[in-house]
Write a structure and sequence with these properties.
8-stranded mixed sheet; alpha+beta; disordered N terminus; 3-stranded antiparallel sheet; 37% strand; 201 residues
Length: 201
């Protein structure tokens, strides 16, 4: 049950459930603006042009490099799309990108979506050390990062990173996540793939 709950929770978080349409957190004033911006030191994500091998997944919204030994698959996710990068035979995707159409998809919407996703992760019962901070990433206009440790039943703990952002035209929200064994996230193929994400206007 814990495994199922975690998978459902993470899937919902990546789909930006509860924040895409109709369930925005209440604003602090009559403008409806939310005051849930992340706090703390910014997480710096260095953009990467390519991985020096492998293929590239590309559609009308984004492109992302696919590490060698992995394949990319896209499936509908609500009104949007979920793209998974997965190694052959792997039980879990190394990278998940979820695109959700929304207007306006601006920094306030990113803050709201990332806060909802973090709340879902925190309520899963399998996530520890959850932190939500600003992210500095030259590939996107604005981003918020959530870092965490996830421990599924019968499995070793994994370090996770979930980044929520929007495109330049402010027409869709994008959430991208990756996981790796503890202490190996920043040197993992999944993290390198995340760094190659490029959003199209």
């Amino acid at each position: 049950m814990r495994t199922t709950a975690a998978v459902v929770c993470l899937g919902a978080a990546l789909a930006l459930a509860g924040c895409s349409r109709g369930e925005e957190p209440a604003g602090d004033d009559e403008s409806g603006r939310t005051e849930i911006a992340p706090e703390g030191d910014a997480l710096e994500i260095e953009a990467l042009d390519d991985l020096g091998g492998g293929e590239t997944y590309s559609d009308d919204v984004l492109s992302i490099a696919v590490p060698e030994g992995m394949t990319a698959s896209a499936t509908p996710a609500g009104e949007g799309t979920s793209i998974q990068l997965r190694a052959a035979g792997a039980p879990r995707a190394a990278v998940i990108v979820t695109v959700t159409p929304q207007e306006p998809a601006n920094p306030d919407a990113v803050d709201a979506a990332s806060a909802a996703a973090a709340a879902q992760l925190g309520a899963s019962g399998v996530v520890d050390d959850l932190e939500r901070v600003p992210a500095t990433w030259s590939a996107v206009p604005y981003a918020v990062a959530a870092t965490y440790t996830i421990t599924l039943e019968g499995a070793e703990p994994l370090d996770g990173l979930l980044v929520t952002t929007h495109n330049e035209a402010e027409t869709y929200l994008v959430a991208v996540s990756t996981e790796a064994p503890q202490g190996e996230l920043l040197s993992s193929p999944g993290y390198d793939a995340l760094r190659t994400l490029t959003l199209k206007d």
